Amino acid sequence: MAYSDKVIDHYNNPKNVGTLDKSAKNVGTGLVGAPECGDVMRLQIEVDDATGVIKDAKFKTFGCGSAIASSSLATEWLKGKSVDDALKIDNMEIVEELNLPPVKIHCSVLAEDAIKAAINDYRKKNGLEQIVFEERIH
Amino acid sequence: MLKLPVYLDNNATTPMDPRVLEAMIPYFTEHFGNAASRNHPFGWEAEEAVDYAREQVAKLVGADPKEIIFTSGATEGDNLAIKGVFEMYASKGNHIITCTTEHKAVLDTCKHIEKLGGEVTYLQVKPDGLIDLGELEAAIKPTTILIAIMYANNEIGVIQPVREISALAKKRGILFFTDATQAVGKVPVDVNKDGIDVMAFTGHKMYGPKGVGALYVRRKNPRVKVTAQMDGGGHERGMRSGTLNVPGIVGFGKACEICRLDMEEDTKRIKALRDKLENALLQIEESYLNGNKESRLPHVSNISFKYVEGEGLLMGFNKNIALSSGSACTSASLEPSYVLKALGLGDDLAHSSLRFGLGRFTTEEQIDYTVEQITTTVNKLREMSPLWEMFKEGVDMDKIEWAAH
After folding, report:
1. Percentage of residues of chain B with pLDDT beyond 70
2. Which residues does chain A have within 8 Å of residue B346's beta carbon, measured at their own beta carbons?
3. What is the phi-psi region of residue B291: left when phi exceeds 0, alpha when psi lies from -120 to 50, beta otherwise?
4. Does B403 touch chain A (CB under 8 A)?
5. DSSP E strands: which ranges in A4-52?
6. pTM of the predicted model, to two decimals?
7. How far apart, in whole angstroms, are the C-alpha atoms of residue B362 and residue B360?
8. Are the beta carbons of B248 and B203 closer than 8 angstroms?
9. Across the interface, do B402 and A67 touch by the CB < 8 Å criterion?
10. pLDDT recorded at residue B328
11. Among the listed ranges B3-12, B247-256, B307-316, B345-354, which one has the minimum average pLDDT value?
12. Is the separation of the CB atoms in B337 and B101 below 8 Å?
């Protein structure tokens, strides 16, 4: 299967690979997927307490090129967004941007899940209520 | 000089040897006759060419030319052998023994047999990929008519104890069929010394053309018959009807001849390259060889690079190096290789595996390049892998509750 140029570019030059201090109160960490499924994503956000804006985002991903590209793209989109706006990122936007074929849609779903998990982790640390997301079948 | 791209997927298919193509060409144009046309020179020429090829094929595996049935390839051979024996020997019994790491052409044919009322035992393999002879013996029943165990595995290259299996089959009066697709032409296969009753193999895995293969069917001690699965003009001693693919058969014959003459030298060279590749890649931290190291095809290596996903790994160099991965990220099921899972490998290791299949045209420069590319990509992806980070921090990943999706 041929990858789109955008997937190849993210794979070759991934944006925001790395680790934020997961014990920091203004850092939210989302770890989703499972080694058995061949995809594990860890996505982290660092929120500016005063403005509620995500000032940094990092990821590490075990998975195929599409999974790596989806998480790399997600971190790019997260930076500079408010937490509330970040929640609006839909996996289909990732699919469109990266031109993912149907068999790779689960990679974008995983990225969306990672964003939500990171936000919930941040909310938990800051005494905010967990957002309950609709269960979806991947 | 380094020649790119590097082709290391010779278990999937091999390039055709130019000598094979040369032998085939006249049979597309001037010698186009139907080998079954008995009344004119066009037919005679074609028949003569087929007879010659039949000898070339037979000689490679130590068979009599009359025991070679030409087919369209190994999938057809597997089907014809299993379904054909099941039908022909229905009065003797309905039980077949095979193993879980067989090719799908065998496994799915066995599933079909079960639907027809047959009984099939699927033997598990040991962690090294070989079957347990004690388990095989224990699985034999009075109704067992066939043992179907592959010669060498397509994913990990392990060679099953064929002679021990055939001795056991003979002792109990059971036929022994082997899918020898990966072995014939690569290692010495001799139907008599190996005690094989029925054997499937194909041209395109040994530098011959696609779409042509053979089924060896023993004629003496015992005389074996298989019920035809393709009805028609009664070609190939009535076991496989259909106009013979003359150019393909000519090419297959030539490919067999080249393999027979060059095997010793080819094997020596290819095995040295395989060992060089394998030893270098096993230097990488947390890399593991899959399958038995000793009883193995000389040109195959299957290695898992833990904490890196196979398809992601391939993407790092697949413009320049052609390889297969045990990961099945593209398939809808997300299930990794059933062969690797049958060895007892965790899904994580199965997802992290690469299969290397070297061949006649692999060069040392290509191997050096491959080692360098894979080492670089593994390191790069591990820097990106959350699992690698956890491993380095000593996190017990078995204790994490993964959200399976």
Report:
1. 98
2. 35-36
3. left
4. yes
5. 27-34, 39-48
6. 0.93
7. 6
8. yes
9. no
10. 58
11. B345-354
12. no
Are B312 and A68 an interchain contact pair (Cβ–Cβ within 8 Å)?
A: yes
Whether B329 is catalytic is: yes
CB-based contact B250:B33 (threshold 8 Å): no
Give the model's confidence band at B96: pLDDT under 50 very low, under 70 low, under 90 confident, else very high: very high
Q: Are strands A27-34 and A39-48 parallel, antiparallel or unpaired?
A: antiparallel
B336 vs A106: CB contact, 8 Å cut-off? no
CA contacts within 13 A on the Cβ side of B311: 25
pLDDT score at A38: 85
Residues of chain A with Cβ-Cβ distance to B330 below 8 Å are 1, 64, 103-104
CA distance linking residue A137 with residue B159, whole number of Å: 41
Tokens representing B98 are: 């095979």
How far CA A19 is from CA of A42, A44, A57, B162, B375, in Å, comes to 9, 7, 9, 52, 23
* pLDDT for the residue A1: 60
Per-residue pLDDT for A138 more than 60? no
Under an 8 A CB cutoff, do B315 and A64 touch?
Answer: yes
Q: For residue B331, which residues of chain A lie inside 8 Å, CB to CB? A: 103
User: Confidence class of residue A135 from pLDDT cuts 50, 70 and 90?
Assistant: low
Mean pLDDT of chain A: 93
Cβ–Cβ < 8 Å for B42, B354? no
Secondary structure string (H, E, C) spanning B183-222: CECCECCCCCCCCCCEEEEEHHHCCCCCCCEEEEECCCCC
328-357 in chain B: CB under 8 A from chain A: 328-332, 334, 336, 346-348, 351
Give the active site residue among A73, A107, A117, A118: A107
Which one-letter DSSP state was computed for residue B67? G
Interface of B with A in 255-314 (CB under 8 A): 307-312
Report, as an integer, the average pLDDT of B228-234. 94
Contacts of A35 in chain B (CB under 8 A): 346-348, 351, 387, 397, 402
Tokens of B183: 């072995």
- Residue reference for tokens 């003496």: B220
Distance separating the N- and C-terminal Cα atoms of chain B: 46
Catalytic residue, candidates A37, A92, A128, A131: A37
Within 8 A of B347 by CB-CB distance, chain A residues are: 35-38
pLDDT, tens only, A103-123: 899 999 999 999 999 999 999
**B160 neighbors B123 (Cβ within 8 angstroms):** no
Query: Which range, of B108-112, B169-173, B301-305, B325-329, averages the lowest pLDDT?
Result: B325-329
- Report whether pLDDT(A136) > 70: no
ipTM: 0.93
Contact A42 B386 (CB under 8 A): yes
Q: Which of A53, A46, A42 is nearest to A23 (CA)?
A: A46
pLDDT at B52: 98
Question: Is A36 within 8 Å of B347 when comparing Cβ atoms?
Answer: yes
Average predicted confidence (pLDDT) for chain B: 95
